[in-house]
Amino acid sequence: MPVAEGTPQTLYDKVFQDHIVDEKLDGTILLYIDRHLVHEVTSPQAFEGLKNAGRKVRRPDCTLATTDHNVPTTSRKALKDIASFILEDDSRTQCVTLEENVKDFGITYFGLSDKRQGIVHVIGPEQGFTLPGTTVVCGDSHTSTHGAFGALAFGIGTSEVEHVLATQCLITKRSKNMRIQVDGELAPGVSSKDVILHVIGKIGTAGGTASVIEFCGSVIRSLSMEARMSICNMSIEAGARAGMVAPDDITFEYLKGKPLAPKYGSDEWNKAVAYWRSLSSDPGAKYDVDVFIDGKDIIPTVTWGTSPEDVVPITGVVPDPETFPTEAKKQAGRRMLEYMGLTAGTPMEDIVVDKVFIGSCTNSRIEDLRAAAQVVKGKHIASNIKRALIVPGSGLVKDQAEAEGLHKTFLDAGFEWREAGCSMCLGMNPDILSPKERCASTSNRNFEGRQGAKGRTHLMSPVMAAAAAIVGKLADVRKLSEYQGSPHIEAAVNPEVAPTAKAHPDERIETDDTEKEMLTDQPEDSSPQVNTSLPKSPGGVGLPKFTVLRGIAAPMDKANIDTDAIIPKQFLKTIKRTGLGKALFYEMRFRADGSENPNFVLNREPYRGSRIIVCTGENFGCGSSREHAPWALNDFGVKTVIAPSFADIFFNNSFKNGMLMIALPDRADLAAVHAEAVAGREVEVDLPNQVIRAADGRVLCAFEVEEFRKHCLINGLDDIGLTMQLDDKIAEFERKMSRETPWLDGSGYLKRKGMGGKLAVKAAPVPKTNRGEDKKEPLEW
Ligand SMILES: CC(C)[C@H](C(=O)O)[C@@H](O)C(=O)O
Ligand code: SF4
């Protein structure tokens, strides 16, 4: 619902409202995007779509690209170019493709030889590209990180990346407002990572579904920008669309002197700060969900299972699944313990660790490294630790750390000092866990296989990971004698120690790494069962029209089926949208020797050819923004998933590919459809009438679908083309933005090209498919 004039507004309402270009009666909104970050994994197919349709990038001045996911973190001393530096073929192809695309489309790019290269979510804030009150998107779920600045920042799928590149807008709808207030104070040794792990433990990984979370309260206010970023970063693990913190003096202090922020002290800076100050939530603003947490209840927290909600205080023990409330939860818990190689009742501090990873977009900033260095100073990693990696989030973080001598502390303690990138957070580069290896990790996801096939991840804060490296087991940092104080809080109250994007020595200290590393979890290009008889969907124009889908539905009973499970990371290295059916549910569908797992539902009759999945567990599609997940389902032949709830980005991505996701929150409705699936009888999904029928024609239940999505599905519409027809409105919006918030037009090295607010690149509707695939699809399956 639009917010009525005079109604108290939340921070989210205000930023959202200020970016509406157009609003339809059904609540579908065309939202203007101020900042677009691009990386190599989720962009190739989007650029390909633009090329095929002859479209341009509308705002190169608002777009910034880098390579981060695939890049090796070994020494760059011998770096000549990316093509010779990256040994693994698919990783190299993705990075080289990005380099070609940024050249072709005139986009600013930080490559491996640039000190500003790093993880997208580290470099955006570091450069002042991320500013309060902006809308920020990236084809990456952890875009939520940028919400720490009071920006509305969220992850999008590749089709949406293409949409933003072409139009600088996104089709979306309002989210719910959720407030998480953390009051009181954090005890020494407790950091922002513990706050967010504690929050996720409390509300669950679906707790924030369909919401934007505003983090507030005295604990949040006291935190530094970097600590706030760690919290907003993991909003996505709480199921939320985004996380936000109202901008304040700590925010403005951080932004002073950043290359792309308005010049400190200028009229523009003063005007910007006045606007930024107006963004906090009004007294009396309404929230759909309110959560209160007392800071003193938070103690250093670690995960024990394979979902970020499986948390326990370090002082606790491995939980006993037999005490879990439902049979489904018990089963899931038993599976997790088996996967993690843990026994119920084991004290967490007795769990022996093999590897330690300090890095990722959650915890690879200078304060994280300072805090970890403080713990390891003068000590050495335990003898059982096979590798302990420090991976700075960007070249500038690395330089800053070296200027402070932190690298020496780490090297003396036995850590590896690496180059910037995503690294072992998801192991698309050679930094991976071997099967059954256990890692103390500062990253954000502990899904099965996340850091390497069969690897075991425990999430925690940088000081806790540092402590684990020293002790050789999961450890309570508060017990390490020299450790005192909470580094994040110190940094917040003392801006003097805040890092700066400018300060770096010219000389680069190189990692000396001669170790030969290989990707060991890259699957063979085996082609297991692919459902070739079904139509492939190219997306965009030429999408198959979805009206009625009839068939046997495959039952699934798992909650939190994450996108890493739908398609593991090793298959994300393609630059195509097609051919991913073979990778669908890879770890569940196939055994280690590549043969089919006979217990997996899609390997059993009558479900082999199912085009519908009925899942009784909550939160289908949680985790990453990879559009590869719906592409894999689609390629396999699955066009509809019915579940009690879905993760937002996955839900969106599916519709962009002409697939219908049906949320059935009513358990009785779901049970009725599930019963038909279990019995192996056909069901019929009737989109025009919004009902699901049994094979005998009985209506099992009705379902909800937004008008605009329904319209696009039934008519197979390309929403980029639709948006381009609104070019006048978009241009008018841009003129207004240039007048009122001129600092949002590209500045610094991102100069806006064009005269007097007139765009150099004009969007125009393109009469052919945006994917260059003019296939005529059947009207119905
Ligand atoms: C590759 C990308 C789509 C993915 C994401 O969206 O999160 C990655 O960054 C991750 O962390 O799994
Ligand atoms: S979560 Fe990991 S893989 Fe994803 S962007 Fe952050 S560091 Fe990279």
Automatic annotation (TrEMBL):
Residues 488-539, 757-781 are annotated as: Disordered. It catalyses: (2R,3S)-3-isopropylmalate = (2S)-2-isopropylmalate. It comes from the Eukaryota. Residues 770-781 have a biased composition (Basic and acidic residues). Pathway: Amino-acid biosynthesis; L-leucine biosynthesis; L-leucine from 3-methyl-2-oxobutanoate: step 2/4. It is an enzyme of class 4 (lyase). This is 3-isopropylmalate dehydratase. Its cofactor is [4Fe-4S] cluster. One of its GO terms (molecular function) is 4 iron, 4 sulfur cluster binding. The keyword Lyase applies. Catalyzes the isomerization between 2-isopropylmalate and 3-isopropylmalate, via the formation of 2-isopropylmaleate. It comes from Schizothecium vesticola. GO terms for biological process: L-leucine biosynthetic process. Belongs to the aconitase/IPM isomerase family. GO terms for cellular component: 3-isopropylmalate dehydratase complex. Residues 13-472 form the Aconitase/3-isopropylmalate dehydratase large subunit alpha/beta/alpha domain. Keywords: 4Fe-4S, Amino-acid biosynthesis, Branched-chain amino acid biosynthesis, Iron, Iron-sulfur, Leucine biosynthesis, Lyase, Metal-binding. Residues 544-665 form the Aconitase A/isopropylmalate dehydratase small subunit swivel domain. Pfam families: Aconitase, Aconitase_C. Its EC number is 4.2.1.33. Residues 525-535 have a biased composition (Polar residues).
